[in-house]
Design a protein that fits this description.
The structure holds two protein chains of two kinds.
Chain A (H helix, E strand, L loop, with lengths): L3 E4 L2 E5 L4 E7 L6 E7 L6 E7 L4 E4 L2 E6 L4 E6 L8 E7 L7 E2 L3 E6 L1
Parallel strand pairs in A: 2-11
Antiparallel strand pairs in A: 1-3, 3-8, 4-5, 4-9, 6-7, 7-8, 9-10, 9-11
Chain B lengths: L4 E3 L2 E4 L5 E6 L6 E7 L6 E7 L2 E4 L8 E4 L6 E5 L8 E8 L9 E2 L3 E5 L1
The chains are: A mainly beta, B mainly beta.
Chain lengths: 111, 115
């Protein structure tokens, strides 16, 4: 089955800096890669996703890049703010299969 | 639009007791998922329903876990008897379709502590 590795496990940045979280996947047939943000005491919330026919996608301060050859994808957050502090999960899936999640990255943004 | 509702939010039980969690998905969503999230890990799928039928329960420990989705709407996940390693957050999610590219919307989860 699919295996998703996520790094780093924790990331501390100063407000205004950029943050990058990286994930690798094992199944070359995977074609959908969402990113979820989970705040304390809440369920994961989708923040951005990318499909395998696209190399990059942006939504304001958030961007995701995908390298299918290397089987890795990354989340980029620019101009970080304290409210960006949360746990971020990457995931991968294909067809009708369900999502396989990474272990998460705790992002801490200091004012 | 109302989100995915779950109850209770917290539950503390002793090992070998039974417990049940309830989920009400977003109205009209045909697909419902139950995930287990152990502290420090990502969610792991336990079971997936399409309407009121099970489409994937390969990772559900069937000797102690059971789930049902009556009339294709609400769902209940039960653990009987509970073990210490069942301590986790149980997340319910729903999506309008079964395809993996359809956004899954998560509820707030039920935090289970087994003593």
């Amino acid at each position: 089955g699919e295996n998703v590795e996520q790094h780093p496990s924790t990331l501390s940045v100063q407000e205004g800096d950029s943050a990058v979280i990286k994930c690798t996947y094992s199944d070359s047939a995977s074609n959908y890669f969402p990113w979820y943000k989970q705040e304390l005491g809440k369920g994961p919330q989708l923040i951005i996703d990318i499909r395998s026919n696209v190399g990059e996608k942006k939504d304001q301060r958030i961007a995701v890049t995908l390298n299918k050859t290397a089987k890795h994808f990354s989340l980029h957050i620019t101009e970080t703010q304290p409210e960006d502090s949360a746990v971020y999960f990457c995931a991968a899936s294909k067809g009708y299969s369900t999502l396989t999640f990474g272990k998460g990255t705790m992002l801490l943004v200091s004012p | 639009e109302a989100g995915v509702a779950q109850s209770p939010r917290y539950k503390i039980i002793e090992k070998r007791q039974s417990v049940a969690f309830w989920c009400n998905p977003i109205s009209g969503h045909a697909t419902l998922y139950w995930y287990q999230q152990i502290l420090g890990q990502g969610p792991k799928l336990l079971i997936q329903f399409q309407n009121n039928g099970v489409v994937d329960d390969s990772q559900l420990p069937k000797d102690r876990f059971s789930a049902e989705r009556l009339k294709g709407v609400d769902s209940t996940l039960k653990i009987q008897p509970a073990k210490l390693e069942d301590s986790a957050v149980y997340l319910c999610a729903s999506s309008s379709q079964r395809v993996s590219t359809d956004t899954q919307y998560f509820g707030p989860g039920t935090r289970l502590t087994v003593l």
